[in-house]
Amino acid sequence: MEDRSQPISRRGLFEALVRPFARHAGGDDGAGLAQGNPSRPADDGTPKVAIIQGRFCLAYQGGVCFTCSERCPVPDALTTEKGIPTVHADICTGCGICHDLCPAPRNAILMLAPPETPALARS
Amino acid sequence: MSNMERRDFLKLSAMTAATAAAQAKAGVERKAIHTDDHGIRWDKAPCRFCGTGCHVKVGVKDGKVIAIAGAEDADVNKGLLCVKGYHVGGILYGKDRLTTPMLRKEGKLEPISWDEAITVVADRIYKEPKKFAFYGSGQWTIPEGYAAQKFIKGGLSNNHIDPNARLCMASAVTGFISTYGVDEPAGTYDDLDNASVVIFWGNNPAEMHPVLFSRIVDRRSRGEKVTIIDIGTRRTRSTEFADHYLEFRPQTDLAIANCIAHYLIESDCYDKEFVSKHCNFRIDVDDTTRDLFGKASSFEEYKQQMSTYTFEYTSQLSGVPEEQLKVLAEAFADPESRITSLWCMGVNQHYRGTAMNRLLHGIHLLSGHFGKPGDAPTSLTGQPSACGTAREVGTLAHALPGGRIVKKPAHREACEKAWNMAPGTINPKPGYHTVKMFEQFCKPTAEGGDISTVLVQVTNPGQTLPNLYKLFEAKKDLEDKFLIVSEVYPTATTELADLVLPAALWVEKGGVYGNSERRTQQWFKQVNPPGGAREDLWMTIAIARKLFDMGYPGMKDQDGKFIFSYNDEQGNEVPIWDYDHFHDINVDRELYEEYRPLTHGKRKNVAPYDVLVNAHGLRWPVVQTKDGNWRETRFRFTEADDPFVKKGTGIQFYNSTTKDDKAQIWFCPYEAAPEEPNKEYPFWLCTGRVLEHWHSGTMTMRVDQLRKAMPKAYVELNPKDAAEKGINNGDLVQLTTARGDLVLPAWINGRARPPRGSVFVPFFDEKLLINRLTLDAYCPVSKEPDYKKCATKVEKYDPIEKKPLP
Fold first, then answer.
1. Which among B713, B747, B739, B734 is positioned nearest to B799, based on CA atoms?
2. How many other CB atoms sit within 10 Å of the CB of residue B300?
3. What residue ranges do the domains of chain B occupy?
């Protein structure tokens, strides 16, 4: 089975940085909201990383969903294996698009401080 | 829980659920309803969206649906829902709900009263009853469809009624009828739990029927082996889980099915006993005639016709490597395997849709992969009551309830009798099917366009008809044509409507749906519709009553009574046409119970209304056992489960068209697509749905989470094609077919992986109407158009100059 998350070419890899919905998107649709969602916790400027909460994630719960991996703008930061998404914390830039777009009835994605810089230590 | 324990637990709970659901007692209180500690009242309903028929628990507080959960005790979904299902409550609360009737005056829709609105409709019909057409839906509830059917075919002696299911399931219907003599699958979803091989024929259940897909894939996580073979024209999300993926050139699926038959015969491993006991052979009348019943054939002729479809020939034609064709053929040749074939729009929206349906049944019958748990050719439906309302109630232009057709005198007579209408009331000539209906509506009256008024309920033809310029938008310039649309939100259809009727949606009304696996499901009204929105069922009855009051003779039965006359418990007629009294009795129950005996003719016995009240649906035929319980049927035509099969026969096709209890194995040749890529239009264009949106997106695009997850339509491109044309992700691309053009953002590979020379566009986006480009050529037998293939040009578009780049 092919791994769909791998871009086809080096050129494709760069192109993947600009996902189709990031451009030409209307004011009130997904990509627009991704740039500033009032429901997102206030950005305090500290580095963040996405954490998937399995108990709320539709894919983890045996359903079919691929919004986060599909819309993540960073290649290889959020990959899927047999439909289950995984965040690669070392690549994740903490942009929060996955959090903003997660369509689960209870948002399955938390934006937290990266594991190597615990929140406690910073404060 | 350890693996072993988990498996035992699941097995046990599955068994308990099956026993409980298979039997339900009548006349008991409503068990599904209860109020929890937070003051939320919970009731049951089937999900509003697709044909899977998942059951949801609907939580209501202060007159508003505030919570949705999967029903754990429902056989279909066992508590699971898809991403749309979890948000189904949200569809009621879009900001732009239609709440008042509106009439177009000098080009603008102006509010009017319901009284005026109903009078306008009745006047149009009264003046030209034969030029009136009713366009309905596989989202109609059974009582809604039944009332529409009785109103137009009985009351107006007019057969111009068709559901949008014509664009969706018609080829499956003709496939079933010409094979078994009766519509709808023999198997059920239970087969998915027992199959060792599941084949997706042009089908992407991961996105379209996710709960069923999970049911299959979940077996793997329990350690069971299920081989998935995906046969398609593009890689999809389902392909990621497939063991084998066969990518074929569009339209050559016909040859692939024939290739399997050829192999089974050549290698002498077809099921001789099954075929000789239970099957006849059938073929088209001649090389050009394509009709429903064809003519009798023989095994020798079948064998000779199939001899063309060698691995070598089929591989060359389809582009599928010979080794892969062999894998597929050998699965069918193995008597130990249990094969469930699944298909939906890929096979039905096909220029030879009837033929492809027949061939799928044919290879299952020929190989004997039929009638055992897990061995079933099962078509899936895309709408929640395509089976229940379009197919069983027979709201098609040629049909009558219970598998009857207008052409047969005995069938008309049975309905006239049930409706207490004079003999000869029902017109024996079939009405216009969908494409023809809108062709006649959009054609000027002077040129023979003999449909002047169309009433649309519960669907959105302005977005979903093929070749929209010709079949819908051409209406714009025709002053004497009148479009009436009952809708929930403003849509591409209301855009051209002369009269808009605001409708109640889902649990704002009661209803009965019938899902893909013959399961009839009932629910009650749980909240009030907003503002002046009212039930479609009420609208039909009110229009009929207005005509009755105007003296239209057809609205009276033989005793001079109104055709929708129903009494309360004291025996007094309730004026249900007056909205203040519409809820005085359960009109759903009255109509459903009137309809139910009509299902007995072809042994499609649906369960009584009161029994359905406390069941998560029951699969017909449903018969009463000696102990007073009602028993459903999981495997139709098999002695072990179907109460109508004669003891000792094993398998009996009791609706056989050849009257000998046998099914028909058809030979149908490969025939080219109606439009193939050429020099001017060098790409294949395929259209379809996406996981997050349902049908034309009018409901799901109003749920924030779903709209954000999939905000707008796009064109999926193969990376090599894109590179050649200098197209990057997000660039605008213009598609042009012989019928129209459209500019969309490019998504390289996208959700699928279209092969070189092909593109895919979803149809949910009302701002980007891909159906302006699609082809209105249809299957000659089912009259279902082919939305899956036509020829298109692909060009990079310059947004500044507003034209394609050179």
1. B734
2. 9
3. 102-168+385-581, 183-380+662-667, 683-804
Whether residue A23 has pLDDT greater than 50:
no
How far is Cα B164 from Cα B389, in angstroms, rounded to an integer?
Answer: 11
Element (H, E) at B210: helix B210-221
Q: Which of B270, B256, B245, B258 is nearest to B317 (CA)?
A: B256
DSSP annotation of B150: I
Q: Does A18 touch chain B (CB under 8 A)?
A: yes
DSSP string, B576-641: TTSGGGTTSS-HHHHHHHHHGGGGTTTT--PPPHHHHHTSS-EESS-EE-TTS-EE--SSTTBTTT
Interface contact flag, B80 A1, Cβ < 8 Å: no
List pLDDT tens digits, range B129-159.
999 999 999 999 999 999 999 999 999 999 9
Instruction: Report the residue of chain B nearest A80, measured CA to CA.
Output: B240
Annotated active-site positions of B, please? 84, 168-169, 345, 382-383
* The CATH number of domain B102-168+385-581 is 3.40.50.2300: no
Distances (CA, A) of B619 to B410, B590, B635: 27, 21, 10
* d(C-alpha B539, C-alpha B533), whole Å: 10
Q: Do B708 and A8 touch (CB under 8 A)?
A: no
- Residues in chain A with CB shorter than 8 Å from the CB of B751 are 70
Query: Backbone dihedral region of B640: left (phi > 0), alpha (psi from -120 to 50 degrees) or beta?
Result: alpha
pLDDT at B15 over 50: no
Cβ-Cβ contacts under 8 Å, A72 against chain B: none
Identity of the amino acid at B322? E
Q: How far is CA A53 from CA A57, B171, B319, B471, B701, in A?
A: 6, 44, 43, 48, 26
| Domain topology for B183-380+662-667 | Dimethylsulfoxide Reductase; domain 2 (3.40.228)
Q: Closest partner residue to B709 among A22, A62, A101, by Cβ?
A: A101
pTM exceeds 0.90, yes or no:
yes
Cis, peptide link before residue B621, omega less than 30° from 0 = yes
Look up the CATH number of domain A10-122.
Answer: 3.30.70.20
| Cα angle: B59, vertex B64, B70; to 5 degrees | 25
- Token duo for residue B778: 């249809």
Fold of B683-804: Barwin-like endoglucanases (2.40.40)
State how far residue A119 is from chain B, nearest Cα, in angstroms: 30
Which of B50, B83, B733 would you mutate first to test chain A, the one with the most A CBs within 10 A? B83
A23 — contact with chain B (CB < 8 Å)? Answer: yes
Residues of A in contact with B749 (CB under 8 A): 4, 8
What is the rounded average pLDDT of the residues B20-43?
A: 74
Axis crossing angle, helix B299-306 with helix B253-266, rounded to the nearest 10: 120
Q: Test A30 with B708 for CB contact under 8 angstroms.
A: yes
